[in-house]
Design brief:
Blueprint (H helix, E strand, L loop, with lengths): L13 H14 L4 H6 L3 H15 L5 H14 L3 H14 L3 H8 L6 H15 L6 H9 L4 H24 L12
């Protein structure tokens, strides 16, 4: 059971209902972690704005999911690991790739550089080495891509913290941490 109130449509105020309607239209569901965010409509709107920026950037959906998977595993967030395993499979990641992502790498060399960089960012609170930034550039990522990797790390750390602090109920097929 969640330690922070999960706002449901039936108990939501008008502003929360409008946000839920927009999320439902876009995703086909309102994930429980967004129902936690809805306790503060401003926090939910801010997260959705960040998500929208990150979703429309230069990183492809598979790379975004790879980053989310490695951070969910690294940060021990079972909710996010379950959610991004389901979303990653829907986006086209296979089981071998998901396993590699959970281990902080990828079967794709370019993606491995992004995942490794994301993992280093989270592990060292942004204190990455020049060699780590150079490796991402050498793999073919632009300055814009590097900024977006950093943005995705921040966004995923935020959701990992929310998931763990709230102990939000998992509403995706459950995937256990290793």
């Amino acid at each position: 059971m969640s330690r922070i109130n999960t706002v449901n449509y039936e108990t939501a105020n008008n502003e929360q209902k409008e946000l839920f309607d927009a999320i439902q239209l876009k995703l086909g569901m309102v994930p429980n972690f967004l129902k936690i965010f809805a306790n503060s409509p401003e926090a939910l709107k801010s997260f959705l704005g960040l998500y929208n920026i990150a979703e429309n950037g230069s990183l492809d959906p598979l790379t975004r999911e790879r980053i989310a998977l490695t951070l969910a595993q690294q940060n021990s967030c079972e909710y996010c690991l379950s959610a991004h395993t389901a979303i990653g499979k829907k986006a086209g990641l296979d089981d071998a790739e998901i396993e590699a992502n959970r281990e902080g790498t990828s079967v794709d060399a370019k993606a491995a550089a992004a995942v490794s960089f994301a993992r280093a960012l989270a592990e060292h609170n942004g204190e990455v080495t020049s060699a780590e930034i150079s490796a991402v550039r050498k793999a073919g990522y632009t300055e814009s891509d590097i900024v977006e990797i950093i943005t995705h790390v921040g966004m995923n750390v935020l959701t990992n913290i929310l998931g763990k602090a709230s102990r939000v109920a998992i509403d995706f097929p459950k995937v256990s941490l290793v």
